[in-house]
Amino acid sequence: MADMLKILIVDDLQVNLVLMEHLLKGADREIYTADNGAEAVEIFSKHDFSLVILDIQMPDMDGYQIAKAIKELDQGRDIPIIFITAIFQDQEYVKKGYAVGAVDYLFRPIDAHLLRSKVDVFLELYSQRLQLEHEIAERKKTEEALKLAESRYRNIFERAVEGIFRAKMDGTIVEANPACVDILGYASAEELSSIPRLAAEMMIQPNERERYLSGMEAEGFVSHYEYQARRKSGDVVWLSESSRLIRGEEGEERFIEGVLLDVTERKKSEQDLQYKANYDGLTDIPNRHLFFDRLDNCLASARRYGDSLAVLFLDLDEFKAVNDTYGHQAGDKVLAEVARRLKKRVRSSDTLARIGGDEFGILLPKIDAPGSAAGVAEDLLKALDDPIVVAGKEFRIQATIGLSLFPEDSEDSVGLVSRADTAMYSAKKKGVGKYAFYSGIHR
């Protein structure tokens, strides 16, 4: 029976230890856990471990100190260490981690599939290393043993789930495993290698390659470097790359070796969440949160450069009757059409937002005079002159608008919106389809 592969997991939270032990358990491995640095070093000194998974943020001894203590032990010199952290990655922290022996980083919340994949690769490498050492000892480092070792390492290279590559400094890929070929959408490694400067040319953003090489030259590596790339099909994907610079002897050509992951789905999820946090799902215009964020930014700029701006608060007149009579489905379609019409009447530099219900906010930065804001208010009201048709039914929708000005009416966002709201209620007293300034100018 093959020897059990031993993994040491170090984390000060019991729930994390239990979770990772559950994720990594297997018939061919034995899991040890420690919740502090002293215990971790003590356990490590008594066993031959294949891999250490180590939390960076620990009380008493942090992950870097624990890693250093392990590496000082005879059996710890060559042990691979995967750091796990919840903090945002910083190049200084990454550099410090590699300096004390880290082979990789994972970030919380932990992706179970990625954790298992990386652990499997390092355990396989450890097993192959042990077997290689045994074979070399048996065959006295004969050429046959070296060829066998190379073949087995090549097998790992071919089966890895991450894209692994070797490229020249100009971006020409000289070696790639099947996963890398698949990620980039080509038919074979030979096809990849036949295209000069492919790794550079596939980057979408201008100057991306320059930024990438700048970091590589400065630090000797990049870690989890994310960029957009174009596959052979023309599709754009997000890639995450961790690579290192291979420096040869003086005068020899330098290479970049690295690992690629396709993180397109994760980036799409992040972008979707960002969009949902800032845009109204019904009308597809900014929501209250984004409106106030932009207003605060415009106010900061206006104070700095002495500009004026206006806030308009628009409320649909008698809109409740639409929902009560025809239902919310019809009301939602009316609101969506109102937003579409209003959006066509504002500048690209302005912000139209749904504040809530049937209320809209309009931010007009850098206005030259109150008359400019009044002109926008009149134009917005005219946008609703024509009836809105929903399911064959005509709805005649009118609105009332209140306006406030910076710096005359208020110098902060809450005050400006509140006074625009007050002006709107003042305008309602004059009848539907009116607008009024907080300062007293009115239609």
Low-confidence stretches: none
Strand content: 15-25%
> Helical element count?
16
Average of per-residue pLDDT values = 86
Distance between the termini: 91 Å
What does this protein structure show overall?
- It is built from 16 helices and 17 strands.
- With 443 residues, it is of the alpha/beta class.
- The strands form four sheets. The chain has a five-stranded parallel β-sheet with strand order 2-1-3-4-5, with helices on both faces. A five-stranded antiparallel β-sheet has the order 7-6-10-9-8, with helices on both faces.
- Helix 2 packs parallel to helix 3 (63-71) and helix 13 (320-326) packs antiparallel against helix 14.
- The longest helix has 28 residues, at 112-139.
- The N and C termini lie far apart (91 Å).
Notable traits:
25% strand, 443 residues, single chain, alpha/beta, 16 helices, five-stranded antiparallel beta sheet
What's the structural blueprint in terms of helices and strands?
Elements: E1 5-10, H1 14-24, E2 29-34, H2 37-45, E3 51-55, H3 63-71, E4 81-85, H4 91-99, E5 102-107, H5 112-139, H6 143-159, E6 163-168, E7 173-176, H7 178-184, H8 189-193, H9 198-201, H10 208-219, E8 221-230, E9 236-246, E10 255-262, H11 264-278, H12 288-305, E11 308-317, H13 320-326, H14 328-344, E12 351-356, E13 359-367, H15 370-382, E14 388-390, E15 393-395, E16 398-406, H16 413-428, E17 435-437
Parallel strand pairs: 1-2, 1-3, 3-4, 4-5, 16-17
Antiparallel strand pairs: 6-7, 6-10, 8-9, 9-10, 11-13, 11-16, 12-13, 14-15
Helix pairs in contact: 2-3, 5-6, 13-14
